[in-house]
Amino acid sequence: MRRYEQPTSMTKSPARDDDSARSAPTLSYALDALERSIADALAARSLVKIGGAVTEISSSSCRLSGLSHFVRLGECVELAGVGKTSLCEVVRIDAQGVTVKPFDGTLDAGLGTMAWACGGVTLSPDRSWKGRTLNALGKPIDGLGPLRQGERAIPTDREPPAPMRRQRVRKPIKTGIRVVDLFTPLCAGQRIGIFAGSGVGKSTLLSMLARAAGFDTTVLALVGERGREVREFLEDALGREKARTIAVVATGDESPMMRRLAPKAAMCIAEHLRDHGENVLLIVDSVTRYAHAARDVALSAGEPPVARGYPPSVFSDLPRLLERAGAGEEGAGSITGVFAVLVDGDDHNDPVADSIRGTLDGHIVLDRAIAEQGRYPPVNVLSSVSRLTRAVLTAEQQKLMLKLREMIAQFEDTRDLRLMGGYHSGADPGLDKAIQFVPRIYETLRQAPEDPLSGDAFQDIARALSADLPEPAGANRLTRASPGTALRQT
Ligand SMILES: Nc1ncnc2c1ncn2[C@@H]1O[C@H](COP(=O)(O)OP(=O)(O)OP(=O)(O)O)[C@@H](O)[C@H]1O
Ligand SMILES: [Mg+2]
User: Fold this and answer.
1) 17 pLDDT band (50/70/90 cuts)?
2) Mean pLDDT of 78-87
3) Confidence band (pLDDT; 50, 70, 90) for 98?
4) Torsions phi, psi of 456, nearest 5?
5) Quick check: 479 pLDDT over 60?
């Protein structure tokens, strides 16, 4: 597509008294703009329209005849209803016809209504979209007027970059959330999941992560959320970061087609910005709702359910989406992906959670029991893993982190025994140390959304562990200066 350049004479403000000098560039400007719109229109739409007709209608889909040989799965058709057209996606094709599902949930069509093929869903993202809120089809829903369209229309469904051309992921990011920076440290271009049951604290942790420094843009996909939560998240939780955030919203009451499209649209915007050199933070809350929407669509297209009601295509759609996040090719920026995963009934082995965990570069597990103790963020550090820890932490920091983990494991394993009075101090010096230090570690890890972000989590924990140390009895004397040194003595 030809790129439009404003004539240089226009930018130099032509002399006001010279009519011909003023009209010539104006004419060339208008002709150029006309040429560009015609080229765009031709590129977007073929001169030949391919149509079919509705032969069967149900509450959530309809069948069309005459299009079987002309459309592909994932492409769209426009149903020319009375008074309005509805955009639908092709979800099944057979020799007799095609099955389509509408994006807006209601079908305004009768038998014989015409349907026109119109290609796949595309977006034309632009940097000026920062601060704006859109629906899954890229239409603004914030009442701030139309969006400026970017130069290139990009399909929402794309392949991830080729693995051998991707940059390595090794640039550390400080999120400012102590428990994350200590136990599951992140890199730019990493993809991590936040796994928890409902109401445990996923969205709150995501909103805290959205404030992390070092990103040029945050792209936020709110999928299947309650309508109330959308404004709360955008206005209260994001705060000042809203100006650098592009939000794509498909609430729980929208059609499964919109909920399935929203993360892909957000990914498409993030990819565009990454390919223009930006470091993007992509947040999807939640990817499970995307899987639910993909399940609804696949079942209504006739796929059989195979694992707990999920049809096979859901398990190929998930890695296809998640793999698109990550580092770009040489010279491009990166997409750091943070995906909330709602674990149905707190069962961390449900097939969707399992498939997502296997695809991502790490998982942060939130625990309802920890939330019930009022310890927020309720991260279970023993079940959480970042697969890039070695790229982020120094050898010294890794040792300290492992030591802290070991003490927490000891402390938690003996909790019941100690509550029943079955342990007497002095019997196990390692456990004595855990009993002394773990409550301080827990206290340091507490962080509410309104608390300031931490500048250096290791410094914070060092300060907490070495402050006001009581003199321990026996040989295992702890020095006040360095908790790392103190912990190594065990
Ligand atoms: N860091 C925190 N500090 C204090 N309270 C918190 C924190 N994180 C979560 N909470 C509490 O937990 C509640 C639920 O949190 P949140 O809405 O983030 O959970 P969720 O897992 O996203 O829920 P859902 O599954 O319904 O989307 C919040 O209303 C808040 O009271
Ligand atoms: Mg939530």
Assistant:
1) very low
2) 83
3) very high
4) -150, 105
5) no
Above 80 in pLDDT, residue 346?
no
Q: Calculate Rg over the CA atoms of the chain.
A: 27
Q: Using CA atoms, how far apart are residues 51 and 60, in angstroms rounded to an integer? A: 21
Other C-beta atoms within 10 Å of 173: how many? 23
Residue 230 has pLDDT above 90, yes or no: no
Query: HSE on the CB side for 471, CA within 13 Å?
Result: 1
> What is this structure's pTM?
0.84
**Closest atom of ligand 1 to CA, residue 342:** 25
Q: Name the strand (E) or helix (H) holding 80.
A: strand 76-80
Give the closest residue (by CA) to ligand 1 atom 4: 448
Distance between CA atoms of 455 and 339, rounded to whole angstroms? 24
CB of 308 within 8 A of CB of 226? Answer: no
Structure tokens at 407: 């003490």
357 CA to middle of ligand 2, Å?
19
- Residue range 434-468, pLDDT digits in tens: 898 999 999 999 999 888 888 888 989 888 888 76
How much is the mean pLDDT over the chain?
84
Number of C-beta neighbours around residue 123 at 10 A: 25
Cα distances (Å, whole numbers) of residue 223 to 87, 203, 209, 286, 291: 20, 12, 18, 6, 10
Report yes or no: 464 and 441 within 8 Å, Cβ to Cβ. yes
Chain-centre distance for alpha carbon 440: 33
pLDDT confidence of residue 2:
38
State the ligand closest to the CA atom of 344: 1
Beta strands in 235-333 (DSSP E): 245-250, 279-285, 326-327
For residue 168, the tally of other CB atoms under 10 A from its CB is 9
Ligand nearest to the CA of 230: 2
CB 47 within 8 A of CB 36: no
Helix (H, G, I), strand (E, B) or coil at 100: strand
